[in-house]
């Protein structure tokens, strides 16, 4: 049976990506798909993403989220992507569990700010500019803030894992990573 | 240090420096010294010539061993759902108020700590607690005040009023096991008359099945161990009755221990074993001295020891081994690990225990009740025994009835009794549900009250918790979710992570922040745990949550938010510490709620 009877090229999916409280390592890993980037360009076009510098996300099919949620801006970005994307994927350890930034969860944010912004003379000058995103009391994994559809583990997930997961999603398969792509040592 | 050494030396000497006695040594060290300090751990490790990490792994695994000072009086409130129904939460808070300590914290003067512990097997005695592992039931405000006064006066536990520790059998229905008086030695004599092979044949004919819940044929175990090669074979009496809502083994060990111990000897006779253990749960520490006395009497009267009742070659002796607060040790292979002095983590099967069990030797682990039934089979024969009950579930079964009924306690029935009949007999008024088989069991609703207690229908180790019309079944399931998260041994990921995620999702729903998303997650998770966990704990850890969703869906639904999803926390409140630190209150320093 011909699944593509009109012979027209299938519609490209719209893809958004963002990094919240992450290190961009997962985005670098996405670039590690190397020459398959050309293939990806044939399957997808990018909406809001560091690759396009689009600031506001429009309706899209899949959004890849790197990093956990550490401040008010992260919440707004995450909500914007959730409102626009049909499928939200948590990519990497920080998005799934909070990761390295969540090491601060043992400490009180007030104490951290006090310590960081105390100068040698003992005076504290914590910036209070409304332009600055306000820190949440803790780092939250993204599935504690919005509904998440899929979780792609790894720190970072390898380029191969991202490619497999993403193409599964684009081609309508339930994404599966075999043992090798989930094996980190 | 002198006092530390003087306390530890006799304990180490008693166990002759045997590393497999590590758990027993640490328990007794804690009894003597109140807690297991790093110095104690170092001394024990060097005396047993084992790595310090091995000692620490045991201290940290068992909930009733403390590697930090928890005070002279360590009070643990039983936190089963039946305790909560009897008002334990308010009593717990009352006790805390007496000493001004947070749960799990030790008072500044090092006197007392107050915390929670899973079901202590006193569900027929109202709310209950353990003080330094000794059980006290029937708690009320007056008792709490009395106990607090005794602690404040630093009165030694041994001098507390005896009536505080009174625990009754509460047997409300007897058939054979509890109903027919047992003459000590009679079962042994009958077994000897039958001979080893003859006794085995009777057990096979009786079609006796394990009373711990799984219903494995006892004769198959005995045959397996009998035929397995091994210079030494073992019988283990599994008295680690940890399933929430179960307490019938407590009653058997209190008033029918002769049957239990002689049942062990009969199993040993049929299997060719010469050594046995009673693995007694920590919560039943108060029964230890009594059982020890009985073992000694049996030795003195030739019912244990060499050539029992004069039968040449019938050699068998029993030792009591204490647990230390770990539900998982009720699982056979985990119990063997614990007997060997290790953390109680289930082994990989095969080989089965009857081939390679305790110290690599053939071992039979049987429930207390199963062993007690062997005395019946020896006396009346297998065919007579098999006439009671149903074809697939022979004999009688003890049920531990608790919760909303007039007469909580132990009820003996022939297998095949309907749940409705039990409810009638115990005086349950308009029950909305019964949890049969404990936290890992099955939730039965009124449309199923005609179902039968039997391995082929509703299988149970004996727990039968009744919930009346005012009870909130969601909270029952949430209590069990907390139980499993506490009791997961941590060995396999599906259970270690799954039980905690299950608990967190149930808590989120309880806080009014859950949606259908969390419910979907729970259903996927409980299925995943059932399919992929290493042992029965993880396999059954999601049963209560799943049953409650299927049978008491409105109890969930009325807690769910109407929209798609709610965040884990109030996000605007999560910004409050930063607003305070930065003195900001602008719009950007707030997060509006969605939806």
Q: Would you mind describing this structure in some detail?
A:
The complex is a heterodimer of chains A (185) and B (595). Chain A has one domain (13-104, 135-176): NADH:ubiquinone oxidoreductase-like, 20kDa subunit (Rossmann fold), CATH 3.40.50.700. Chain A is 29% helix and 19% strand. Chain A has six helices and seven strands. The radius of gyration of chain A is 19 Å and the shape is elongated. The mean pLDDT of chain A is 93. Chain B is an alpha/beta fold. Chain B is 43% helix and 12% strand. Chain B contains 24 helices and 14 strands. Chain B has a six-stranded mixed beta sheet with strand order 5-11-10-14-12-13. A four-stranded mixed beta sheet of chain B has the order 2-1-3-4, covered by helices on one side. In chain B, strands 8-7-6-9 form a four-stranded parallel beta sheet, with helices on both faces. In chain B, helix 3 crosses helix 4, helix 8 (186-206) crosses helix 9 (218-227) and helix 10 crosses helix 11. Chain B is globular. Classes of the chains: A alpha/beta (185), B alpha/beta (595). Chains A and B meet through helix 3, helix 5 and strand 6 of A and helix 24 of B.
Let me know the largest β-sheet of chain B: 6 strands, mixed
In CATH, the topology of chain A is named Rossmann fold
> What does the average pLDDT of chain B come to?
96
Q: Secondary-structure element order of chain A, as H and E?
A: EHHEEEHEHHEEH
Tag the structure with descriptive keywords:
heterodimer, A: 185 residues, alpha/beta, five-stranded parallel beta sheet, two-stranded antiparallel ribbon, 7 strands, elongated, B: 595 residues, Glutaredoxin, 5 domains, six-stranded mixed beta sheet, four-stranded mixed beta sheet, 14 strands
Task: Itemize the secondary structure elements and their pairings.
The complex is a heterodimer of chains A (185) and B (595).
Chain A: E1 13-19, H1 25-31, H2 36-43, E2 44-46, E3 60-66, E4 69-71, H3 72-84, E5 85-91, H4 92-97, H5 109-116, E6 135-140, E7 150-152, H6 159-170
Parallel strand pairs in A: 1-2, 1-3, 3-5, 5-7
Antiparallel strand pairs in A: 4-6
Chain B: H1 2-14, H2 22-33, H3 38-48, H4 52-61, E1 73-78, H5 81-85, H6 88-99, E2 112-117, E3 129-131, E4 134-136, H7 141-152, E5 171-173, H8 186-206, H9 218-227, E6 234-239, H10 248-255, H11 257-271, E7 275-280, H12 288-300, E8 317-322, H13 332-339, E9 363-367, H14 368-380, H15 382-386, E10 396-403, E11 409-414, H16 419-426, E12 433-436, E13 442-444, E14 463-467, H17 473-487, H18 493-510, H19 516-532, H20 536-540, H21 543-551, H22 553-557, H23 571-574, H24 576-582
Parallel strand pairs in B: 1-2, 5-11, 6-7, 6-9, 7-8, 10-14
Antiparallel strand pairs in B: 1-3, 3-4, 10-11, 12-13, 12-14
